[in-house]
Design a protein that fits this description.
The complex is a heterotrimer of chains A (about 475), B (about 100) and C (about 475). Chain A is about 40% helix and about 15% strand. Chain A has 15 helices and eleven strands. Chain A has an eight-stranded mixed β-sheet with strand order 4-6-5-10-11-9-7-8, sandwiched between helices. In chain A, strands 1-3-2 form a three-stranded mixed β-sheet, with helices on both faces. In chain C, about 40% of the residues lie in helices and about 20% in strands. In chain C, helix 2 runs antiparallel to helix 3, helix 7 (about 325-335) packs across helix 9 and helix 14 (about 445-455) packs across helix 15 (about 465-475). In chain C, strands 6-7-10-1-11-12-13-14 form an eight-stranded mixed β-sheet. Classes of the chains: A alpha/beta (about 475), B alpha+beta (about 100), C alpha+beta (about 475).
Amino acid sequence: MMIDSGLADISRALADGSISSVELTQDYLKRIAAENTDLNAYITVCDELALAQAKAADEKRSNGNAGVFTGIPIAHKDLFCTNGVRTSCGSRMLDNFIAPYDAFIVERFNEAGAVTLGKTNMDEFAMGSSNETSFYGPVKNPWDRTRVPGGSSGGSAAAVAGRLCAGATATDTGGSIRQPASFTGITGLKPTYGRVSRWGMVAFASSLDQAGTMTQTAEDAAMMLNVMAGTDVKDSTCSNAPVEDYTANLDKPLDGLRIGIPVEHFSDGLDSEVEKAIRAAIAEFEKLGAVVKEVNLDNSHLSVSAYYVIAPAEASANLSRYDGVRYGYRCDNPVDLEDMYKRTRSEGFGAEVKRRIMVGTYALSAGYYDAYYIKAQKIRRLIKNDFQKAFEEVDVIMGPTSPHTAFPIGSKNDDPVTMYLEDIYTIAVNLAGLPGLSIPAGLVNNLPVGLQIVGKDFAESQLLNVAHKFQQVTDWHTRQPG
Amino acid sequence: MSIELADVENIAHLARLHLSDAEKQEAANSMTDILGLIDQMQSVNTDNVEPLAHAFDAVQRLRKDEVTESNHRDELQKIAPETDQGLFLVPKVIE
Amino acid sequence: MEWETVIGLEVHVQLSTASKLFSGTSTAFGAEPNTQANIYDLAMPGTLPVLNQEALRMAVKFGLAIDAEIGKKSVFDRKNYFYPDLPKGYQTSQLDFPTVGKGELVIDMEDGSHKTIGVTRAHMEEDAGKSLHEDFHGKTGIDLNRAGTPLLEIVSEPDIRSAKEAVAYLKKLHSMILYLGISDGDMSQGSMRCDANVSVRPKGTTELGTRTEIKNINSFRFVEKAINIEVERQIDIIEDGGRIIQETRLYDSERNETRSMRSKEVANDYRYFPEPDLLPVVIDDAFIESVRETLPELPDIKRARFQEQYGLSEYDAMVLAADLATANYFEEVVAGCDDAKLSANWVMGDLQAVLNKNETPISQSPVAAKDLAGLISRIKDNTISSKIAKTVFEAMLAGEGDADAIIESKGLKQVTDTGAIEAMVDEVIANNPDQVQQYKDGKEQVIGFFVGQVMKASQGKANPGQVNQMLKEKLSS
């Protein structure tokens, strides 16, 4: 079925008239109606909006004004504001929040003629690694519905993997695109920090959050990045770096590519079968002409610690605006202001969000700021220095995205720290602001394994080229659940 | 570093969160664990290291001082929990 | 026991930019509630700040005017606390790296002396919204029009030693910000707000006493009263053997007392950290010079120039230079009549009296500068006497025209014709032989009687100088 195809194929099919956007959209909506109750990938399905957009796209095409993305149905993570459509961030706090404006990337996709199928499920306020903290219930991994799809962008991952959309937007703060991509056998890209505007992307940890893509292939990711990347004066942290055509260099040969393998990412804790799959994948690159060498990321082991100070600290302030005053949830019959604040926030937020707000508040509180927050910022610099040093000798760094494959729903809920360690290979990349990609690289017990590829600042073109060449000689990215 | 119930109460108040007694104990336990994770940072000497606040060395962009926004009160207050005569209402605040 | 008062002032000045500090929403005063509050000002999810260039320029301008260090790299920080008029649950402010560093302000005391007061720093921050507690039946209404307006917080060193010095500091600061055109500095409307940190210590000691922070002072007069009453309160407590509690107190102008603010008792841990949504603000020498070029002649320089250029006394120069609009008015008058002394007297005297009485600012003066110059010119050229000029001035205030028109229509021209005056003088001398004799007997002050008689005969129009001269000549012969 056409709706099993990726963005590139769909774009071609629309262009040559073999299918219309309306037909495509109807097919997706039908499948969503059949599958979503179980998978729970979507929080909001935009039937009417999608069909209206599809119709407009087909009209544009018949007038000869269609572009590459015109009429392609995608989904947006429910962290992106969509004008007139509920934007819940997976939280009771925003269950009733109809966004009054579009996020920058949503505007971009709308301008490009994309069709919005709906808003995907996620860990509450992007805090989680399994999509189990959502107010709307957990998302299931299409590969094994007793297992998690990863998080926080579990809904976008499951939607793409389950072929409930052609591609999806998502966000990554500590691994929230790469880890779910790894668990669901798809391609997840987190661009360089500042490559994509954060305007309209609900903030979790401002200095780490970045919008990215979930697609079947690297080529599809390049297509989406072309729409999303660019300067935005409304986001002070958005970069002025020149935007390229990310599809232009996909086929560049990899001869002489220098790949670094961090010693620290291949030690205890990494599942031996996953390690085998990763090493086999890396061997494919050598066949393509790359050279591989070991590198050191000495402060790797401190990345999770530093992250769990910085991210909760920023989040604790970013979430203070949820107070029941101007929008969102408000508790019933507050007796006074304090009661309104406390009950609104306690009832509106789930347990993990409250936990992180507490940790963040503590880390910033009087007497602890230097020992925690400043210390973490110093570790952050050491981590960035590690990457800079490594990139003096290699062009890209590769390793496993996750220490293991998707785990069963409910199996890691006892101890938050165990869950935090899920992101042990991905977090350092956010701390350093670098671009990172996860591509399907194998299967272990019929569960996907992801290969993480990390590049230098603004090297998305190279990352996508490296991934694309791999996808030309392997077929992991074509495997589907069931 | 262990977190006591008194610490939990103080932090919960600063963050305007209400916790039941059971939740307070749970918070104390999980925070103690998380702090155990965070304390691993102390194992490395960072005396001569500059904190990194932003991933890249860039400076703040400036915006021209002009009015670009217009009144959208009615639309924006449609989603407000409680309003009256254009004001957002909250329980009475005693100064 | 002799006590010394130690005062530091924190003044918040609302910068007069067109748009807010971090959003393009209007800052115009007096709009309907929440009609000037966009999605950023309402702290909607996903919104982000972008810095207003003019606010930065105004802050730097202030820094240059007080000879302060300018922070070439300044950083915004989040100050975290919960209050309904603070939409984000944090205020974006500047803590460790403010835009303006150490500077100083020279204040002018009533006795003519000057004192230098240190300014510790000045930084930019967002204003909060307004809470309205009346009219809502047990609820509070929140208006966010003001939320996000740029403020410049100016912190003085604790160099101020009396309530009067505090008032002098505020007046000088007020004068300065109006000169710079960065704020309308209206304390009654809240575009300039003052909090006072007050402590006392035994005279001669150097250790600082426990201070209290006094808030809710909205006029220069109340600043003086609030500080004095708080100093009295503190001294009373200490002399009774008690200790001062470090706290925030509200000044109640009706009862003339300070009251502890219950809601601020609990120590607020603001958990400051650098604002991750903003990058460091970096300015270079070229930027600073471009701001420096926009500096007007500052009050103290203008005062010195007025003394030099117009020969005014220091006091007169200070009064005229204190307010930029008055200084400009004065200079326009001088340009029109070429008499600085008369111009100074008329502006500071007769005109100011009328403006004070009607609480009119000089920018709305019923008599324009060129017209006042016209009046003074007629005094100078002897068309009218100073006394008649006051009559003409009254008529000008009433809108009866300019000086020439009024002199003409009321026939107030001074009589200067020697012949005419001589005739009147002769008549008065002839009619008052007793007084003539008194004069010849040595009672010189009787000449005033003669002058009065001549003035009466001429209906006030005779030139008093000439009358005096002529009487002296004739009576002495």
